[in-house]
Design a protein that fits this description.
The chain is mainly alpha-helical. It has 2 domains: 54 residues; 41 residues, no CATH class. 75% of the residues lie in helices and 0% in strands. It starts with a helix and ends with a helix. The relative contact order is 0.04.
C-alpha cells in the first residue's frame, strides 16, 4: 500500500512538471511572438512617418500656390448628388421575417431608418 502511494505521488509530481513545462514553453513562445510583432510594428510606423514627412521647401511651395475655384453648374451638382444617392442606396436591405405573426409596419420603419443612414 505504501508503494502504491509512492507511485501515485511520483505520477502526480510528473504530471505537474509536464503541465508547468508545457505552459512555460507556450507562454515563452507567445512572449517572443509579441515582441517580434511589436518590433515590426515600430519599424513600419517609422517608415511611414519618413514617407509622410514633406521637406519644408515643398510645404512652403504648396502654401504659396493659388487656390483655383471651379465653376460648377447646377447640372453637374445635380448629377453628383444623384450619383452619390445611387451609390449609397442601390443595395436594398432585405427584410427576413422569422415569424409569420410579425408586424410588417415595424420592419418597414426599420428599413426606412436604415436607408436614412
Amino acid at each position: 500500500m505504501l508503494e502504491r502511494l509512492q507511485v501515485d505521488v511520483l505520477e502526480l509530481i510528473l504530471g505537474l512538471e509536464l503541465v508547468v513545462v508545457g505552459m512555460g514553453i507556450t507562454f515563452l513562445v507567445l512572449i517572443i511572438l509579441s515582441t517580434i510583432l511589436t518590433i515590426i510594428g515600430k519599424t513600419i510606423t517609422k517608415q511611414e512617418r519618413k514617407k509622410n514627412d514633406l521637406p519644408k521647401e515643398e510645404i512652403v511651395k504648396l502654401e504659396s500656390e493659388e487656390i483655383v475655384e471651379e465653376d460648377n453648374s447646377d447640372e453637374e451638382a445635380i448629377a453628383m448628388m444623384a450619383a452619390a444617392y445611387l451609390h449609397c442606396f442601390k443595395n436594398e436591405v432585405p427584410i427576413i421575417s422569422l415569424s409569420e405573426s410579425a408586424d410588417k409596419w415595424k420592419y418597414g420603419r426599420r428599413r426606412d431608418m436604415m436607408e436614412g443612414l
